Amino acid sequence: MNQPQEPRFDKLEQRVENLEQTFKEVIKNEEQLIRLSQRHRLNTQELKAITGRIELDIEDSTVRLDKIEAGMATKQDIAVLKAITEHIQLDIGDSRERFDKIEVRLDKIEAGMTTKQDITVLETTMATQKEDISALKTTMAIFETTQTEHGELLRQILARLEPR
Q1: What per-residue confidence (pLDDT) applies to 1?
Q2: What pLDDT shows up at residue 26?
Q3: What secondary structure, in 3-state letters, does the chain show?
Q4: CA torsion sign, 44 to 130 to 38 to 125?
Q5: Which of 54, 99, 111, 146 has the fewest CB atoms within 10 Å of its CB?
Q6: For the segment 126-149, what is each residue's pLDDT rounded down to a tens digit?
Q7: C-alpha distances out from residue 103 to 37, 49, 56, Å
Q8: Torsion angle of the four alpha carbons 151, 157, 158, 161, in this order, in degrees rounded to the nearest 10
Q9: pLDDT tens digit string along 45-54?
Q10: What is the pLDDT of residue 67?
Q11: Residues 135 and 108: beta-carbon distance below 8 Å
Q12: Number of neighbours of residue 15 by Cβ within 10 angstroms
């Protein structure tokens, strides 16, 4: 009962094997994309937590600045403190915008994880996010430096206001 197969059946079998191999690769790529997406989500949550702590520190600083402003002797000192507060609030706004952009990119990545083109887009997005994270770390370092400088300014102002 061994009948020779027709050449067209051989081609069909080869095509089926190729499709099965491609399907396995797609599944493997999707699993990798899911893992990457999970890592990105965790990183985003960590960054949100850090930003939340910074916001709490800034709110605390704002309350302290308000108390100092109420007891300050000169309008010039008040203007300096208001400028510092506005600068910090602008920096917070910039950080929020960066986080929103990262979240939008992650949502787009999660929505369309099926093709090899998506993997290339994901890699490009990851590089951009790494740059954004690096920029955010720089901004956070600036916040810390600024906060230290503000603390020094506040100490100097309080020293001036103390009764002699």
Answers
A1: 45
A2: 92
A3: CCCCCCHHHHHHHHHHHHHHHHHHHHHHHHHHHHHHHHHHHHHHHHHHHHHHHHHHHHHHHHHHHHHHHHHCCCHHHHHHHHHHHHHHHHHHHHHHHHHHHHHHHHHHHHHCCCCHHHHHHHHHHHHHHHHHHHHHHHHHHHHHHHHHHHHHHHHHHHHHHCCC
A4: positive
A5: 111
A6: 888 888 888 888 888 888 888 888
A7: 11, 14, 22
A8: -170
A9: 888 888 888 8
A10: 77
A11: no
A12: 10
Distances (CA, A) of 53 to 7, 28, 94, 155: 69, 38, 16, 23
Assigned token pair, 68: 């100092």
Residue type, 79: A
Length of the chain as a residue count: 164
| Structural tokens at position 141 | 């370092």
Note the pLDDT of residue 127: 86
Place of tokens 């910074």: 54
User: Is-above-0.70 flag for pTM?
Assistant: no
